[in-house]
């Protein structure tokens, strides 16, 4: 049976439109780090590199390579950890997308080892040239204790959802471990109207 994260991992990926607490375990990712406005073309090229690497793993059996422990699965959604540059934080200046610092990523199944991930990087880079291929890394990341919530609507309206999450943290004596936050993109902005887009927003708390 095909593993589908939307069905088997609802707690992680399909929260309700109200804050919930959860513990997020260690997960494996292909990642790219960058900075600047995500509406610029380089962000799209970085995203394309991550998807190419992720589908490289997914399609291995069709290329006559079946990794140990492999199972049929749906490729995970794009995610990102976002914050502001140190300079913007120190200056306390008004929000500007040019000041954003990010690490975007796509989760990989547990059977993916570092050796397999790095070998796939080499293979895909040869088949699908992209200036960002050399910047893709394979990492294990543990979010730990979090508060998350489904945001419905445009990315530019996320501040409203963040305010709800912050009130929840205050009311439940939770503090954020950092100014970073995670976003999980469940909608394709090229195909879904802004007001109908779904994005999981996650704070790291203690």
Structure report:
With 206 residues, the protein is an alpha+beta fold. It has a single domain (7-205), classed as Regulatory factor, effector binding domain (Multidrug-efflux Transporter 1 Regulator Bmrr, Chain A, Alpha-Beta Barrel). It contains six helices and six strands; from the N terminus they run H-H-E-H-E-H-E-H-E-H-E-E. The protein has helices spanning 5-8, 10-13, 41-58, 86-91, 114-127, 158-171, and strands spanning 20-35, 78-84, 100-108, 137-152, 176-185, 198-205. Strands 1-3-2-5-6-4 form a six-stranded antiparallel β-barrel. The chain is globular and about 55 Å long. The model has no long low-confidence stretch (mean pLDDT 96).
Q: β content, as a range?
A: 25-35%
Residues in helices, as a percent range: 25-40%
Largest pleated sheet: 6 strands, antiparallel, barrel
Spatial strand order of the main sheet:
1-3-2-5-6-4
Overall strand count: 6
What is the CATH third-level topology name?
Multidrug-efflux Transporter 1 Regulator Bmrr, Chain A
Number of helical regions: 6
Inertia-based shape: globular
- Overall number of structural domains: 1
Low-confidence stretches: none
What is the SS-derived class? alpha+beta
Radius of gyration: 18 Å
């Amino acid at each position: 049976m095909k593993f589908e994260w939307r069905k088997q991992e609802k707690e992680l990926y399909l929260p309700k439109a109200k804050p919930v607490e959860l513990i997020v375990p260690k997960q494996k990712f292909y990642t790219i780090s960058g900075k600047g406005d995500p509406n610029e073309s380089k962000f799209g090229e970085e995203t394309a590199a991550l998807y190419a690497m992720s589908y490289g793993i997914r399609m291995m059996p069709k290329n006559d390579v079946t990794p140990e422990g492999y199972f049929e699965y749906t490729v995970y959604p794009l995610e990102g950890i976002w914050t502001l540059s140190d300079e913007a934080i120190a200056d306390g200046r008004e929000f500007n997308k040019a000041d954003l610092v990010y690490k975007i990523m796509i989760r990989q199944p547990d059977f993916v080892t570092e050796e397999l991930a790095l070998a796939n990087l080499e293979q895909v880079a040869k088949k699908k040239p992209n200036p960002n291929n050399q910047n893709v890394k394979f990492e294990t990341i543990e979010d730990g204790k979090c508060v998350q919530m489904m945001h419905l609507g445009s990315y530019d309206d996320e501040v409203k959802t963040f305010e709800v999450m912050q009130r929840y943290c205050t009311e439940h004596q939770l503090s954020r471990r950092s100014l970073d936050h995670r976003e999980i993109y469940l909608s394709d902005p090229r195909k879904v109207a802004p007001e109908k887009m779904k994005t999981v927003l996650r704070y790291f708390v203690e």
